[in-house]
Specification:
The structure is a homodimer. The first copy, chain A, is an alpha+beta fold. In chain A, 42% of the residues lie in helices and 17% in strands.
């Protein structure tokens, strides 16, 4: 499909970042947060270098962009990634209120390189009752107390 | 359901952290990474305080636990959270290879307090074609180049 020039440029940029990152000992993923006004932040996969399983390229780019603009809300910005965002990165973009997402390679290409993006998407599409180990709800008398405190706080900052 | 004592204790701990965090200006969520050998790390929601939309309690606990044990792999550890992990936190626990997850409140309780956990789960369960804005794949001649570089690197650290 045809995309705006700033998206095409960010896509090439994200792929360059991904290739460079492999040479630096990181995973083969790069991402850019951008808008028609220009690039706000970039990110690369730093899982193994930072010992942080959440340090995916898109998550790093989102964190960096938020620091750059001084907000936890990226409404109006675009996420461009060398590869289709995995469930972690997709959910991160939802919480960040990113307006739209563009990518080059997809989960099948990531799987061919040994990554679990597609496997995790498949698992999340499967009923939890069939998971090897699914999240388990445990009764606790105070389960709603944090939300009660939240609702009672007039100065709460919603997100 | 009945759970081991170390899980019950971590669940109470996560709820205490969540309540304390509201008073500190954060979101009403707490999490603990633990095992039968004891607590490894805790985390609270720091989205608004750190201007980081990915700083959910579980993500913060996972990052902290990884720093603590010096690995990006939490195989054998348990994630205990005051509330059902959202898609971001669930995917983070998959990438971190957390063994099992226990929680008190669930997505419906979070929704009643104004949080989008349930809405994002619903969106992810809906065909992308019906999303207001869905991730878009764009053709790029170098789409597979990062993965080619990765496969060619003998010293790559897989995760």
């Amino acid at each position: 499909m045809s995309v705006p020039d700033f998206v095409s440029e960010a896509l090439s940029h994200s792929i360059e970042l991904a290739i460079e990152n492999v040479a630096l000992g990181g995973g083969p993923f790069g991402a850019v947060i951008t808008s028609p006004a220009g690039v706000v932040a970039t990110g690369v996969n730093r899982v193994t270098r930072d010992l942080d399983p959440t340090a995916h390229a898109e998550v790093c780019a989102i964190r960096s962009a938020c620091r750059e603009i001084g907000s936890f809300d990226l409404t109006g910005f675009v996420l461009v990634s060398s590869c289709e965002p995995c469930p972690l990165c997709l959910a991160a973009s939802m919480w960040a209120r990113v307006g739209s997402i563009f990518y080059a390679a997809d989960r099948t290409h990531a799987a061919a390189a040994g990554f679990d993006d597609a496997a995790f998407y498949e698992l999340m599409d499967t009923p939890r009752s069939s998971w090897p180990s699914s999240p388990t709800q445990v009764n606790h008398s105070l389960f709603d107390a944090p939300f009660d405190s939240w609702r009672a706080l007039d100065s709460r900052i919603e997100y």
